Amino acid sequence: PGRCMARAEPPAASFERRVLRSAAEHHYLRVRLELPDGVARPTVAQFKQLVVSALRELHGEVGAALPVDVLTYEEKTLSAILRVISSGLVKLWSALTLLGFYQNRRCAFRVLQTSPFLLALAGNSRELVLD
User: Fold this and answer.
1) Strands (DSSP E) along 2-127, which ranges?
2) How far apart are CA 94 and CA 51, in angstroms?
3) Is the pLDDT of residue 67 over 60?
4) Domain ranges across the chain
5) Helix-strand-coil percent breakdown of the chain, rounded to 5?
6) Pairing state of beta strands 79-85 and 68-74?
7) Cα dist from 23 to 17, 55, 102, 105, whole Å
8) What is the rounded average pLDDT of the residues 5-31?
9) What is the rounded distance in angstroms from the CA atom of residue 86 to the CA atom of residue 67?
């Protein structure tokens, strides 16, 4: 009658923060270079040099030494698929984003897709046409 029943307190919730790092060795980026009309379109070698110079401009010689491969390049659309070692993804992405000039004319890189899986870049659901 005058006694309080002691309630057992539930154990304090414990949270564990887990950061899952991709085990993939490489990341792939689908990019497009946007140039004003009338500017000569770069060849695949010039495109690769533009990527390396963007890395050098932002991250110095260490950035320029980052292994980046141009897997595909379409000169007509100025689109490419780049492969970079996963630890260099942020360096490459930031360098491309901040590049503003090609042959003293304004330009911009657009990163359209990125994935640790090359197959994921094979199709873009945004361009899918349904019957």
Assistant:
1) 26-34, 68-74, 79-85, 101-102, 105-106, 108-115
2) 11
3) yes
4) 26-122
5) 30, 25, 40
6) antiparallel
7) 18, 24, 35, 39
8) 76
9) 10
